[in-house]
Amino acid sequence: VNIILLGPPGAGKGTQAKRLVDERNMVQLSTGDMLREAKSSGSEMGRKVAEVMDKGGLVTDEIVIGLIEEKITGNAGGGFIFDGFPRTLKQADALGALLEKTGQGLDAVIEMQVDDAALVARITGRYTCGNCGAVYHDQTRPTAKPGICDACGSDKMVRRADDNGDSLKTRLMEYYKKTSPLVGYYYAKGQLATVDGLAEMDDVAAAVAKVLDRS
Ligand code: AP5
Ligand code: ZN
Protein backbone atom coordinates (compact mmCIF):
# COMPACT_ATOMS: atom_id res chain seq x y z
CA VAL A 1 0.00 0.00 0.00
CA ASN A 2 1.31 3.45 -0.96
CA ILE A 3 -0.25 6.57 0.54
CA ILE A 4 0.22 10.32 0.65
CA LEU A 5 -0.28 12.32 3.85
CA LEU A 6 -1.41 15.75 2.75
CA GLY A 7 -1.84 18.76 5.01
CA PRO A 8 -0.47 22.12 6.08
CA PRO A 9 2.59 22.53 8.32
CA GLY A 10 1.85 21.12 11.76
CA ALA A 11 -1.12 19.00 10.62
CA GLY A 12 0.52 15.93 12.15
CA LYS A 13 1.86 14.24 9.01
CA GLY A 14 5.19 13.30 10.54
CA THR A 15 3.59 12.09 13.78
CA GLN A 16 1.20 9.75 11.97
CA ALA A 17 3.83 8.61 9.46
CA LYS A 18 6.11 7.48 12.30
CA ARG A 19 3.27 5.47 13.84
CA LEU A 20 2.64 3.71 10.54
CA VAL A 21 6.32 2.86 10.30
CA ASP A 22 6.20 1.28 13.77
CA GLU A 23 2.80 -0.40 13.47
CA ARG A 24 2.72 -1.45 9.82
CA ASN A 25 6.31 -1.58 8.78
CA MET A 26 5.76 1.02 6.12
CA VAL A 27 8.50 3.26 4.71
CA GLN A 28 8.29 6.98 5.54
CA LEU A 29 9.50 9.21 2.71
CA SER A 30 9.60 12.72 4.17
CA THR A 31 11.13 15.22 1.75
CA GLY A 32 11.43 17.64 4.69
CA ASP A 33 13.59 15.12 6.60
CA MET A 34 15.66 14.40 3.48
CA LEU A 35 16.26 18.11 2.92
CA ARG A 36 17.17 18.68 6.58
CA GLU A 37 19.64 15.80 6.27
CA ALA A 38 21.17 17.44 3.20
CA LYS A 39 21.31 20.70 5.13
CA SER A 40 23.18 19.22 8.09
CA SER A 41 25.57 17.33 5.81
CA GLY A 42 26.89 20.72 4.68
CA SER A 43 26.85 19.67 1.00
CA GLU A 44 26.51 22.17 -1.83
CA MET A 45 22.86 21.19 -2.30
CA GLY A 46 22.33 21.40 1.46
CA ARG A 47 23.59 24.96 1.60
CA LYS A 48 21.33 25.95 -1.26
CA VAL A 49 18.18 24.44 0.23
CA ALA A 50 18.82 25.62 3.80
CA GLU A 51 18.37 29.24 2.85
CA VAL A 52 14.99 28.59 1.23
CA MET A 53 13.76 26.15 3.89
CA ASP A 54 14.62 28.22 6.92
CA LYS A 55 12.54 31.08 5.54
CA GLY A 56 9.62 28.75 4.83
CA GLY A 57 9.70 28.73 1.03
CA LEU A 58 9.43 25.66 -1.18
CA VAL A 59 12.58 24.07 -2.56
CA THR A 60 12.59 23.55 -6.36
CA ASP A 61 10.55 20.72 -7.85
CA GLU A 62 13.66 19.31 -9.56
CA ILE A 63 15.48 18.79 -6.26
CA VAL A 64 12.65 17.08 -4.39
CA ILE A 65 11.54 14.97 -7.34
CA GLY A 66 15.16 13.80 -7.66
CA LEU A 67 15.24 12.82 -3.96
CA ILE A 68 12.00 10.85 -4.23
CA GLU A 69 13.01 9.14 -7.46
CA GLU A 70 16.14 7.85 -5.78
CA LYS A 71 14.14 6.31 -2.91
CA ILE A 72 11.38 4.79 -5.03
CA THR A 73 13.67 3.17 -7.56
CA GLY A 74 15.87 1.82 -4.78
CA ASN A 75 12.95 0.08 -3.04
CA ALA A 76 10.73 -2.04 -5.24
CA GLY A 77 8.75 -3.36 -2.26
CA GLY A 78 6.72 -0.18 -1.82
CA GLY A 79 4.69 0.43 1.33
CA PHE A 80 5.51 4.11 1.03
CA ILE A 81 4.11 6.93 3.11
CA PHE A 82 4.74 10.13 1.20
CA ASP A 83 5.02 12.77 3.93
CA GLY A 84 5.27 16.35 2.70
CA PHE A 85 5.46 15.27 -0.93
CA PRO A 86 4.00 16.10 -3.43
CA ARG A 87 3.58 19.80 -2.69
CA THR A 88 2.92 21.15 -6.20
CA LEU A 89 0.95 19.91 -9.20
CA LYS A 90 4.23 19.31 -11.00
CA GLN A 91 5.41 17.08 -8.16
CA ALA A 92 2.07 15.23 -8.17
CA ASP A 93 2.37 14.50 -11.89
CA ALA A 94 5.98 13.39 -11.43
CA LEU A 95 5.01 11.04 -8.61
CA GLY A 96 2.28 9.48 -10.73
CA ALA A 97 4.76 8.88 -13.54
CA LEU A 98 7.41 7.46 -11.18
CA LEU A 99 4.99 5.02 -9.58
CA GLU A 100 3.75 3.89 -12.97
CA LYS A 101 7.28 3.41 -14.22
CA THR A 102 8.08 1.17 -11.24
CA GLY A 103 4.85 -0.81 -11.60
CA GLN A 104 3.24 0.59 -8.46
CA GLY A 105 0.04 2.38 -7.61
CA LEU A 106 -1.19 5.03 -5.24
CA ASP A 107 -3.81 3.63 -2.87
CA ALA A 108 -4.98 6.70 -0.97
CA VAL A 109 -4.32 10.36 -0.38
CA ILE A 110 -5.18 11.29 3.18
CA GLU A 111 -5.90 14.94 3.76
CA MET A 112 -5.37 15.94 7.40
CA GLN A 113 -7.69 18.84 8.12
CA VAL A 114 -6.81 21.33 10.85
CA ASP A 115 -7.51 25.00 11.40
CA ASP A 116 -4.82 27.64 11.11
CA ALA A 117 -4.97 28.79 14.73
CA ALA A 118 -4.22 25.26 15.94
CA LEU A 119 -1.23 25.05 13.60
CA VAL A 120 0.51 27.98 15.22
CA ALA A 121 0.23 26.37 18.66
CA ARG A 122 1.43 23.03 17.30
CA ILE A 123 4.43 24.43 15.48
CA THR A 124 5.63 26.73 18.21
CA GLY A 125 5.43 23.93 20.83
CA ARG A 126 7.18 21.29 18.76
CA TYR A 127 10.59 19.77 19.50
CA THR A 128 12.24 16.67 18.08
CA CYS A 129 14.89 14.22 19.13
CA GLY A 130 18.09 15.07 17.30
CA ASN A 131 19.16 11.45 17.50
CA CYS A 132 16.12 9.37 16.41
CA GLY A 133 13.69 11.98 15.05
CA ALA A 134 10.85 11.31 17.53
CA VAL A 135 8.43 14.28 17.59
CA TYR A 136 7.24 15.90 20.84
CA HIS A 137 5.23 18.92 21.94
CA ASP A 138 5.56 21.13 25.01
CA GLN A 139 1.87 20.73 25.91
CA THR A 140 0.32 17.85 23.96
CA ARG A 141 3.16 15.35 23.90
CA PRO A 142 5.99 16.09 26.32
CA THR A 143 8.73 13.55 26.98
CA ALA A 144 8.22 11.53 30.18
CA LYS A 145 11.48 12.90 31.63
CA PRO A 146 12.16 16.52 30.67
CA GLY A 147 14.70 16.76 27.85
CA ILE A 148 15.17 12.98 27.51
CA CYS A 149 13.79 11.15 24.46
CA ASP A 150 11.25 8.44 25.38
CA ALA A 151 12.24 6.40 22.34
CA CYS A 152 16.03 6.37 22.48
CA GLY A 153 17.13 8.06 25.72
CA SER A 154 19.08 10.80 23.95
CA ASP A 155 19.22 14.27 25.56
CA LYS A 156 19.70 16.01 22.19
CA MET A 157 16.38 17.80 21.75
CA VAL A 158 16.17 20.26 18.88
CA ARG A 159 13.76 22.90 17.57
CA ARG A 160 13.56 23.51 13.84
CA ALA A 161 14.99 26.70 12.32
CA ASP A 162 11.73 27.25 10.38
CA ASP A 163 9.44 26.89 13.43
CA ASN A 164 9.19 30.62 14.07
CA GLY A 165 6.34 33.05 13.41
CA ASP A 166 7.68 34.61 10.19
CA SER A 167 8.69 31.34 8.53
CA LEU A 168 5.42 29.72 9.55
CA LYS A 169 3.49 32.52 7.85
CA THR A 170 5.41 31.87 4.64
CA ARG A 171 4.96 28.09 4.96
CA LEU A 172 1.19 28.52 5.34
CA MET A 173 1.05 30.88 2.37
CA GLU A 174 3.01 28.40 0.25
CA TYR A 175 0.61 25.65 1.32
CA TYR A 176 -2.49 27.54 0.31
CA LYS A 177 -1.02 28.84 -2.94
CA LYS A 178 0.82 25.77 -4.24
CA THR A 179 -0.16 22.64 -2.29
CA SER A 180 -3.88 22.96 -1.49
CA PRO A 181 -4.84 22.56 -5.21
CA LEU A 182 -3.74 18.93 -4.77
CA VAL A 183 -6.87 18.32 -2.68
CA GLY A 184 -9.04 18.88 -5.75
CA TYR A 185 -6.56 17.08 -7.99
CA TYR A 186 -6.75 13.85 -5.98
CA TYR A 187 -10.47 14.21 -5.32
CA ALA A 188 -11.01 14.25 -9.07
CA LYS A 189 -8.92 11.08 -9.37
CA GLY A 190 -11.13 9.43 -6.75
CA GLN A 191 -8.21 8.96 -4.36
CA LEU A 192 -8.95 11.52 -1.64
CA ALA A 193 -9.85 10.62 1.94
CA THR A 194 -10.18 13.18 4.70
CA VAL A 195 -9.43 12.83 8.40
CA ASP A 196 -9.89 15.28 11.26
CA GLY A 197 -6.34 16.24 12.19
CA LEU A 198 -7.53 18.18 15.23
CA ALA A 199 -8.61 15.03 17.04
CA GLU A 200 -6.45 13.32 19.68
CA MET A 201 -3.38 11.64 18.20
CA ASP A 202 -4.81 8.13 18.81
CA ASP A 203 -8.11 9.05 17.15
CA VAL A 204 -6.31 10.47 14.13
CA ALA A 205 -4.30 7.24 13.94
CA ALA A 206 -7.52 5.19 14.06
CA ALA A 207 -9.04 7.25 11.25
CA VAL A 208 -5.91 6.80 9.14
CA ALA A 209 -5.93 3.06 9.85
CA LYS A 210 -9.51 2.84 8.64
CA VAL A 211 -8.59 4.40 5.31
CA LEU A 212 -5.61 2.07 4.95
CA ASP A 213 -7.65 -1.02 5.72
CA ARG A 214 -10.15 -0.33 2.99
CA SER A 215 -7.45 0.57 0.44
P1 AP5 B 1 8.35 19.51 6.19
O1 AP5 B 1 9.41 18.92 7.01
O2 AP5 B 1 7.54 18.63 5.31
O3 AP5 B 1 7.43 20.39 7.14
P2 AP5 B 1 5.89 20.80 7.09
O4 AP5 B 1 5.10 20.37 5.92
O5 AP5 B 1 5.89 22.26 7.38
O6 AP5 B 1 5.28 19.94 8.14
P3 AP5 B 1 5.73 19.80 9.59
O7 AP5 B 1 6.85 18.81 9.72
O8 AP5 B 1 5.97 21.16 10.17
O9 AP5 B 1 4.42 19.28 10.27
P4 AP5 B 1 3.75 17.84 10.36
O10 AP5 B 1 2.48 17.88 9.61
O11 AP5 B 1 4.71 16.76 10.04
O12 AP5 B 1 3.41 17.86 11.91
P5 AP5 B 1 4.03 17.04 13.14
O13 AP5 B 1 3.62 15.62 13.08
O14 AP5 B 1 5.48 17.34 13.32
O15 AP5 B 1 8.97 20.64 5.23
C1 AP5 B 1 9.85 21.62 5.71
C2 AP5 B 1 10.37 22.48 4.57
O16 AP5 B 1 11.11 21.66 3.63
C3 AP5 B 1 9.32 23.17 3.69
O17 AP5 B 1 8.90 24.38 4.25
C4 AP5 B 1 10.10 23.34 2.38
O18 AP5 B 1 11.00 24.42 2.47
C5 AP5 B 1 10.90 22.06 2.29
N1 AP5 B 1 10.18 20.98 1.58
C6 AP5 B 1 9.79 19.78 2.10
N2 AP5 B 1 9.17 19.03 1.18
C7 AP5 B 1 9.14 19.77 0.05
C8 AP5 B 1 8.57 19.55 -1.25
N3 AP5 B 1 7.93 18.39 -1.55
N4 AP5 B 1 8.71 20.53 -2.18
C9 AP5 B 1 9.37 21.68 -1.89
N5 AP5 B 1 9.91 21.96 -0.69
C10 AP5 B 1 9.80 21.02 0.29
O19 AP5 B 1 3.19 17.72 14.32
C11 AP5 B 1 3.40 19.07 14.70
C12 AP5 B 1 3.33 19.21 16.23
O20 AP5 B 1 2.00 18.94 16.67
C13 AP5 B 1 4.23 18.22 16.98
O21 AP5 B 1 4.78 18.85 18.10
C14 AP5 B 1 3.28 17.08 17.40
O22 AP5 B 1 3.70 16.47 18.60
C15 AP5 B 1 1.96 17.82 17.57
N6 AP5 B 1 0.79 17.02 17.18
C16 AP5 B 1 0.71 16.19 16.10
N7 AP5 B 1 -0.51 15.61 16.03
C17 AP5 B 1 -1.22 16.10 17.10
C18 AP5 B 1 -2.55 15.88 17.58
N8 AP5 B 1 -3.41 15.05 16.94
N9 AP5 B 1 -2.96 16.55 18.69
C19 AP5 B 1 -2.11 17.40 19.34
N10 AP5 B 1 -0.83 17.63 18.94
C20 AP5 B 1 -0.39 16.99 17.83
ZN1 ZN C 1 15.22 9.78 20.32
Note down, in words, how this protein is organized.
Residues 126-162 form the Adenylate kinase active site lid domain. Keywords: ATP-binding, Cytoplasm, Kinase, Metal-binding, Nucleotide biosynthesis, Nucleotide-binding, Transferase, Zinc. Pfam families: ADK, ADK_lid. The protein has helices at residues 13-24, 31-41, 44-55, 61-73, 89-101, 116-124, 165-179, 181-188, 201-213, and strands spanning 3-6, 27-30, 80-83, 108-113, 126-129, 135-137, 157-158, 192-196. With 215 residues, it is of the alpha/beta class. The protein has a five-stranded parallel sheet with strand order 2-3-1-4-8, sandwiched between helices. A hairpin with a 5-residue loop joins strand 5 (126-129) and strand 6. The protein is globular, with a radius of gyration of 17 Å. 33% of the residues are buried. The model has no long low-confidence stretch (mean pLDDT 95). Bound molecules: BIS(adenosine)-5'-pentaphosphate and zinc ion.
- Number of helices in the DSSP assignment: 9
**Which whole number gives the mean pLDDT?**
95
What small ligands are held by the chains? BIS(adenosine)-5'-pentaphosphate, zinc ion
Could you spell the SSE succession in H and E letters? EHEHHHEHEHEEEHHEH
Shape: globular
Class from helix and strand fractions: alpha/beta
Give the termini separation: 7 Å
What percent of residues adopt helix (DSSP H or I)? Answer: 40-55%
The radius of gyration computed from the alpha-carbon positions, rounded to a whole number of angstroms, is 17 Å
Please give the number of β-strands.
8
Task: Estimate what percentage of residues fall within beta strands.
Answer: 5-15%
- How would you characterize the largest beta sheet? 5 strands, parallel
In the predicted model, the low-confidence regions spanning at least 5 consecutive residues are none
State the strand order across the main sheet.
2-3-1-4-8
